[in-house]
Each structure stands twice: as structure tokens, then as C-alpha cells.
């Protein structure tokens, strides 16, 4: 039997084969802190897991039914009334003020801004403000006359009437265009004809300074300003006489 020092000869005795284990000062406090730290660590790990699942497991909300129709209706509204007309094809005949036709390049917007380049009228031709251009649509494509008239106006032409062609000419012009004017407006007709490739000319008995542009089924677009300027330079150049040497 073991007796701790200082207890010999006294009534108190400790039985057993070893001294009782005594805890060190502050040991319980350290254990409590360790338990608290372990609980906090587990809570942080759980919170982090929930955040990862939220971020990577989130699914994109499906687009509401009918939204495609909303986009389509918005695009149609932006295109104007021509898109809603039966048989209308604003893209079939592009001009500087209209949409590009199938197969046309994406440079239509650039050509639209370039159409505002002023025309330099050579000597012998009337100024653009000296005569009026009436634009008539002889095709089944709605809005074509308005688009073409807007492009010609950007280039400096004075625009008069914009309407459908008379029934006698509707779908009867197979070429790109027909230009009609009086015998005194020959130069004005030539000047307007340099804007449309392949346009034909006819004369009537009018005496005013108006010129009619009838858009035909073969029309695709106005010439670019550079092409029109080149055509005007050719038209303004005198043809060499027979037997002359260049």
C-alpha cells in the first residue's frame, strides 16, 4: 500500500497500487477550446459545401414560352409596315434605305451611309434641284418605291411623287427600270439613268421638268455612288467622231 508523502502516521490512507492521476492545470480549458474549434471547422466546411453546390449546381432558367414570338414581333415591328404586307419582300430589292437582299453582303449598312455622297454634276447637265424625280413601283414588292426615293433624296435628287405604277405598267417592265420624260429633259433623264444600271428611256409630251422612274422586275439596287459617278463621267464624255484617232 502506498501512502503519499505527508500522510504517514495519519488516519488517511489510499489503497491501490499507484498514485491517483492528477490533471494538469488548464487542461480542461484546452479541451473545451479544441471542441469549440472542431465545431466551428465543421460548420465552415458545411457552409462552403452549400455555397459550391449553389454556384455550380444552379441551372439556367428556361426561357418563358412565347418569348421567341416576342422577339420576332419586335423585329417585324422594327422593319415597318412592309414586313406585314402580303407578298411584301423588303429584302428582295436592297437600296441604300432598305434591307439587304438574300445573298447580299453585310456591307449594305455601309453603302447606305455612302449613298449620301453629293453628286458632282458636269457641265451640260441640269442641277439636281432643277428637275423633279417621280418614283413609281411597277413590281409586286411593297415599299420598293419609297426605299429607292429615299436613297435618291440622300444623293441630292429632288423627289416628287412616290407611288405604285399605273396598272398598264405593273409587272410589265422586265428590265431594271424605265425612265420617262419630255423631249426637253433629255439630260435630266441621262443624269438619272446613271444611278440605275440597265435603265431604258422613253419620251412623252410633257413640258415640265419632271422625270419618272418606273422600277422594274429586274431591279436589284441603285448603283453605288462610285459606280454612278463613273457612269456619269462616261455619259458626259463626248463620243469620238468617226475616223478620229485617240
Give an overview in words.
The protein is of the alpha/beta class and 246 residues long. It is 33% helix and 12% strand. It has six helices and five strands; from the N terminus they run H-H-H-E-H-E-E-H-E-E-H. The protein has helices at 27-56, 67-78, 108-114, 144-154, 186-193, 225-236; strands at residues 132-137, 158-164, 177-182, 200-204, 210-215. Strands 2-1-5-3-4 form a five-stranded mixed β-sheet, covered by helices on one side. Helix 5 links the parallel strand 3 (177-182) and strand 4 (200-204). The radius of gyration is 45 Å and the shape is rod-shaped.
Q: What is the topological layout?
A:
Layout: H1 27-56, H2 67-78, H3 108-114, E1 132-137, H4 144-154, E2 158-164, E3 177-182, H5 186-193, E4 200-204, E5 210-215, H6 225-236
Parallel strand pairs: 1-2, 1-5, 3-4
Antiparallel strand pairs: 3-5
What distinguishing features does this structure have?
246 residues; alpha/beta; five-stranded mixed sheet; 6 helices
Averaging pLDDT over every residue, what do you get? 74
**Could you say which structural class the secondary elements and strand pairing correspond to?**
alpha/beta
Strand order within the widest beta sheet: 2-1-5-3-4
β-strand amount: 5-15%
| Radius of gyration using CA atoms only | 45 Å
User: Sheet with the most strands?
Assistant: 5 strands, mixed
* Tally of DSSP helical segments: 6
Could you spell the SSE succession in H and E letters?
A: HHHEHEEHEEH
The gross shape turns out to be rod-shaped
Compute the separation of the termini in Å.
143 Å
Helix content: 25-40%
The overall strand count is 5
Outline the low-pLDDT stretches: 63-114
Amino acid at each position: 500500500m502506498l501512502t503519499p508523502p505527508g500522510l504517514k502516521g495519519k488516519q488517511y490512507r489510499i489503497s491501490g497500487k499507484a498514485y491517483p492521476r492528477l490533471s494538469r492545470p488548464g487542461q480542461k480549458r484546452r479541451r473545451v477550446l479544441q471542441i469549440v474549434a472542431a465545431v466551428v471547422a465543421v460548420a465552415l466546411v458545411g457552409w462552403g459545401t452549400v455555397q459550391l453546390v449553389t454556384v455550380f449546381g444552379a441551372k439556367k432558367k428556361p426561357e418563358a414560352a412565347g418569348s421567341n414570338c416576342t422577339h420576332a414581333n419586335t423585329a417585324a415591328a422594327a422593319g415597318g409596315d412592309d414586313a406585314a404586307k402580303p407578298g411584301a419582300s423588303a429584302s428582295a430589292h436592297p437600296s441604300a434605305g432598305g434591307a439587304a437582299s438574300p445573298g447580299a453582303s453585310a456591307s449594305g449598312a455601309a453603302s447606305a451611309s455612302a449613298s449620301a455622297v453629293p453628286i458632282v454634276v458636269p457641265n451640260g447637265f441640269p442641277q439636281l434641284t432643277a428637275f423633279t424625280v417621280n418614283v413609281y413601283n411597277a413590281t409586286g414588292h411593297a415599299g420598293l418605291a419609297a426605299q429607292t426615293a429615299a436613297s435618291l433624296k440622300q444623293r441630292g435628287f429632288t423627289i416628287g411623287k412616290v407611288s405604285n405604277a399605273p396598272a398598264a405598267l405593273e409587272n410589265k417592265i422586265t428590265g431594271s427600270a424605265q425612265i420617262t420624260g419630255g423631249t426637253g429633259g433629255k439630260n435630266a433623264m441621262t443624269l438619272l439613268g446613271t444611278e440605275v444600271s440597265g435603265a431604258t428611256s422613253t419620251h412623252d409630251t410633257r413640258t415640265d421638268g419632271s422625270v419618272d422612274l418606273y422600277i422594274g422586275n429586274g431591279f436589284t439596287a441603285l448603283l453605288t455612288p462610285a459606280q454612278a459617278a463613273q457612269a456619269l463621267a462616261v455619259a458626259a464624255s463626248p463620243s469620238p467622231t468617226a475616223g478620229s484617232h485617240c
